[in-house]
Amino acid sequence: MATKRDYYEVLGVPKTASTEDIKKAYRKLAKECHPDLHPNDKDAEARFKELNEANEVLSDPDKRARYDQYGMDGPQNPFGAGGAGFDFSGFGGMGGMGDILDQLFGGGMGGAQRRNAPRAGEDIQYELKISFEEAAKGCEKSFDFMRDEICEVCHGSGAKPGTQPKTCPTCKGTGQVRMQGGFMTIARPCTTCGGTGKIVTDKCESCGGAGVKRLRRTARVPIPAGIDNGNPVVLRGKGGPGINGGPAGDLIIFITVRPHKLFKRNGTTLLLDMPISFTQAALGADIDVPTLNGTVKYHIPEGTQSGTEFRIRGQGLPRVGSSLKGDLLVTVKVEVPKRMSDKQKDLLRQFDAISTGREYEGSKSFLDKVKSLFN
Fold it and tell me: Any idea what the CATH number is for the domain that residue 363 is in?
């Protein structure tokens, strides 16, 4: 089994890199190897997945702390099978085992510092439905969404204007309380203040003491030509507010493309099933082929068989971020006439009577194979 590369190496950043440096490195590298820009490139797809995995860990303070301490495959229980007899399930809010170990033997303040450090706001996800034509040609769409914003009255403190949050009397402002367990001292978040070290007694009337308000906002998002179903478009900094002065999160729009009445797609290739008449297939014809930009003339040669594919260059979908376009692949379906008049039937019988068999290559080949089985 292949060994995974170090996450810092994957993103090309030092272990001292800030969260913002990690995000910048991820955005740059992910854009270079995005599967949309490298269709059918398995190496680019694997590289993109590797970048996502590294970013998911290193951009999260708690996950990063555990990774820095234990590495790629850190132990699930750092105390071993025997352990010290403690149940650590109630300490999840401290950021996992990494934070708990920070508190052992004297209870350092690493967990509280991480909680009170600047953190990026939450990303907001939104599903946006667009038409097939809008996906093919690109467009700009507007939509309303809900997000939390810092209260403009208390500026995020949660306290009534003219007052200030008070130091928590339980933890004395540390954000933690200690528990003695045998020879170990374990610190956990203070339940009185939620680990902030502050409590609000006179709450802001505008936000009810939350420090944030949920508001409806309107976003305008440019949709690039050629975008496919499920592809995301990211608006940086349009998500939830940052915590303790951290940057705002992102607004991630996942695109859902409605199906088209005529066309299907395979990457940048447009697919079209088109019926033609028996006469057109037999004698050949110039037919009008629909495209996303109107109709184009195309010559069908005589003797065309049902299921034959014709490729019309440059009438497909554009590749995202490029002026190059795919092709239109037309599969003709020869229709056998129904409800014919007596005269039409008589003419077909006359045609069949004067046929030598050479007109039907498939039938002749089939009959030759049948004869060879019995001779």
Answer: 2.60.260.20
Is 63 within a domain?
yes
Return the ∠ at Cα 337 (arms to 331 and 343), rounded to 5°.
150
DSSP designation for 207: T
Percent of the chain as helix, strand, coil, to the nearest 5: 30, 25, 45
Q: Is residue 171 part of a domain?
A: no
Determine how many CB atoms are found less than 10 A away from the CB of residue 21: 14
pLDDT at 263: 97
Within a 10 A sphere around the Cβ of 332, how many other Cβ atoms? 22
Question: SS3 sequence, 286-333?
Answer: EEEEEECCEEEEEEECCCCCCCCEEEECCCCCECCCCCCECCEEEEEE
Q: For residue range 38-56, list pLDDT tens digits in order.
A: 777 888 888 888 998 899 8
Amino acid letter, 124? I
**pLDDT tens digits along 4-36:** 788 999 999 998 888 888 988 988 888 788 776
What confidence score (pLDDT) does residue 75 get? Answer: 42
